[in-house]
Structure formats: structure tokens, C-alpha cells
Amino acid sequence: MDFINILEKGFWAGFAALGFAILFNVPQRTLLIIWAMGALGGLLKFLLLGVEVNIVLASLAGASLIGVLSVYAAHNKHAPPLVFSIPSVIPMVPGAFAYRMMLGCMELIGTSSNSETYLKTLAETTNNGLKAIFILIALSAGVAIPMLVTRKDTFKRIKSSEEQEDQ
Amino acid sequence: MIKTLKDIREAEAMLLNVGTLLMSSGASTGRVRTTVNRIADALGYNIELLITNRSLMLKVIDEESDRFIASLKRTSPHGVNFRIVSGISRMSWKVIEENWSIPQINREIERLVALPHYPRLVILSSVALAGSSFCALFGGKGIELVVAFVATFFGLFIRQESLKKRFNPFVSIFFASFAASLLSGLSVKLGVGKSPDLAFAASVLFLIPGVPLINSFTDMIDGNILNGIVRGIHGLIIAFAIALGLLCAKFLFNI
Fold first, then answer.
1. Residue A166: enclosing H or E segment and its boundaries?
2. CB–CB of B208 and A95 under 8 A?
């Protein structure tokens, strides 16, 4: 496993996250944390890919790490978790797979359906498309579930309404 | 204190304003609901809220006088702005802790809306840096990163300009995707670097609908299935617009 290569990729993932953070106009105090979270999520994903974990699971792990960290960051920096998690998770979006799936679809339109290459392209396109879709689902699940699990809001509301009934 | 009809009307307008601002700035449906509920609670009103993607319907009830007002507001179409989401969320806690009045809340909202964005050049260059980071993540090196940087910079510039000229948002995305892939496609045609294909794929990634797609999923598992579907389709249309731009550039260069 090439550790320097993985470190470098984590570093770049941080910058991709930072670019989107600025595009989404996040408050300045959150920028550094978003860079770090993007880099950590990317690092975990590429580390897992390095030990030959399935890419969907690796993305899920990376996104879950970001999701959990975003809840802590939200408490410390007083901004909702999604401000941190959405920009940080974007570097893991399966752009390359989606791109290849689209190229495959375009090729399929151009070739006749009973040729040998058609089946091969079809198989590759299905594979790329399914990977793209499942990685996307894994990313949003990884980010969304920690937010929902740790949300104290509902608890607070229930408690305050009970108190009102007591009075 | 007994609330007059005017008080209820003021509260109604303010709460709808908060809700629509949050919705158009990229908050999930659950967050809009909790925030509006929290502020209404602090002011002593009961509310019922219907949230759809493009409009909000709110009924404010004053239990004491048994009066209510219901009205509807369209969400404004401006884009993702997490500074507003975070500012309103902070404000909603202050409303509870410091017992803010409605004029005070309105003043804070005005301040939040007027907060400046990052300077244009900073946005352009940092998103361009994100474009070259994507290229590096795919395994690109050296000159390919530069190509991705320039193409993303140009693409985002075109998107901002076409949004300024009030083109349809999806058409603006098509223009941006086409512009970025024209530049990076040129590098593929001329054979710049070892694998110019990576820069080509990375140059349109700044357009990916990250906020609609992630919010779509959050909404769905939160039980707001209809809103989730609407957001998902919205993200899908954006993806199609990107693909169309790429396709046009590919056919032009015949690559």
C-alpha cells in the first residue's frame, strides 16, 4: 500500500471540499474544519480502498465518519451539521463512474444491438451505473443517519411539553 | 399579554419568511420545520406547517384568543447559501434564550440576508482549485490539473454570467457544462498530458447537484417522502443538463 499516495489524495479531497464550501457560502469560521473533514473522509475511503474493500462500503465508511464529525463540529462551531457535511462529502461523489456510464449509454445508442461489442458495453455500462448509484446512496446515508440519530431536538421538545403539562 | 390580530399577522409573516429563506438556502425539510416550530414556540404560538419545495403554507394559532391566520408564501429562487442556514439556526436559539421580539428577529433576518458572499474571484479560483483536486483524485498529474483548473474557472464564470442574465437555471448549467468541457475537450483533442481524459471528466464536476441529492435522501428517511422525491428529480435534471453539455462538446470535437 502506498501511504504517500493515499495521504496526497486525502490532501486533495480537502481542497475539493473547501472549493464547494466557498461556493455554498459557508461562514468563515467553518472553512478550516470543512477542509479537515473532507481530508479525513477521503483518507479513510482511500485507506479502505487500499486494503481492497468494496468501493461502496469504503464510501459509506468515509461518509459516516464525516457525518459523525459534523455533529461534533456543529456543537462546537454553532452551525447546523449539514453546513459541514455536505461540502466535505462532495469529493467522494462518483463523478468518474457517472461519466463512464454516460459514455457507455452514448456508445450503446450508436452500436447495433446484435453485435458482440454491444453486450460488452452493456455490461460495463450497467456496472459503472450501478456503482455510481449505490455510492451516491451510501454517501447520503452515511451523512444523513448520524445527523438523525444524534438530533436532540425532538427530545428537547418532548421534555418541554411534559413540563408544561405538569404546571 | 393578549395578542391582537396585528400581532398574529406579524408573527405569521416573519415565520413564513424564515421558512422560505431556509428552504431556498438549502436546508432539509426537517430542519425548516424544527426551526420554524422553535421560533413559534418561543413567541407563544401554535402552528401547523405544510412544506413543499416551492412554497410554504402556515397556520398560526393563538390559543388564548382562539384566533388563527393561515397563508401561503412562495420560496424565493436564489441558490444555496449556508451562511443564512447557519445564521437563522443560531438566531432561533437566541430567540428562546433572550426572549427576542418580532421586530428584533426581522432586523436580524435583514442583516443575515445582506451579509456579503465571498468575493467573486475567491469563489472562482477556489472552485477551480476544487476542479483540479477532482482531477488529482482521479489520478491526474501536472498539466492535467492546470487544464481542469482553467476549464472549471471558465465554466463557473459562464454559469454566473448566465444566471445574472436570468436564464433558466438548468439552461445555465448546460451552458457551464458545455463551456467547461469545450476547454478540457480541446486538451483531449490536442493530446495535452498523459491522460487528458481525466481532466475532461473532472472539469464538469463542480456542477454536481450535491445539496439536492443529499437533502433528498435526508428528507426521505425523515418521512418527508414527497419533498425527497421532488429534490431527487431536481438533482437528476441537473445531472442531465451536465451530461448534455458534455455530449455536445464530445460531438463537436469528435472524441
1. helix A153-166
2. yes
- Whether A139 has its CB under 8 Å from any CB of chain B: the answer is yes
- Is residue A56 within 8 A of residue B167, CB to CB? The reply is no
- Distance between CA atoms of residues B57 and B20, nearest Å: 10
* A99·B246 Cβ contact <8 A: yes
pLDDT given at position B82: 93
Instruction: For residue B65, give the amino acid letter.
Output: S
Probe site for chain B from A8, A24, A25, A34 (most B CB atoms < 10 A): A25
pLDDT-derived band at A152 (thresholds 50, 70, 90) equals: low
Task: Give the relative orientation of helices A31-50 and A81-89 as an angle to the nearest 10 degrees.
Answer: 50
Return the DSSP state at B47.
E
Give the position of cell 467547461: B180
Note the pLDDT of residue A154. 44
Average pLDDT, integer, range A21-27: 93
**What's the confidence (pLDDT) of residue A165?**
45
DSSP 8-state class, residue B118: P
Other Cβ atoms less than 10 A from the Cβ of A162: the count is: 9
- Secondary structure of chain B: what % helix, strand, coil (to 5)? 70, 10, 20
The answer to whether B173 and B114 have CB atoms below 8 angstroms apart is no
CB contact under 8 A, A80 and B27: yes
Residue numbers in B near A76 (CB within 8 A): none
User: Which of the residues A2, A23, A77 would you substitute to probe the B interface, choosing the one with the greatest number of B C-beta atoms within 10 Å?
Assistant: A23
Please list every residue in chain B whose beta carbon sits closer than 8 Å to the beta carbon of residue A91. Answer: 130, 133-134, 137
**In the prediction, which pLDDT does A1 show?**
59
User: Strand pairing partners for B54?
Assistant: none
- Pair A147, A67: CB distance under 8 Å: yes
d(CA A142, CA B242): 25
> Alpha helices, DSSP H only, in B26-142?
29-43, 82-97, 102-114, 120-137
A57 at the B interface (CB within 8 A)? no
- Has the ipTM of the complex gone over 0.85? yes
* Each residue's pLDDT tens digit, A39-63: 999 999 999 998 989 999 999 999 9
With beta carbons less than 8 A apart as the criterion, state whether A85 and A72 touch: no
Q: Chain B neighbours among A 71-100 (CB < 8 Å)?
A: 78-80, 82-83, 85-87, 89-91, 93, 95-96, 98-99
pLDDT-flagged residues of chain B (< 50): none
Q: Which residue from B minimizes the CA distance to A7? A: B137
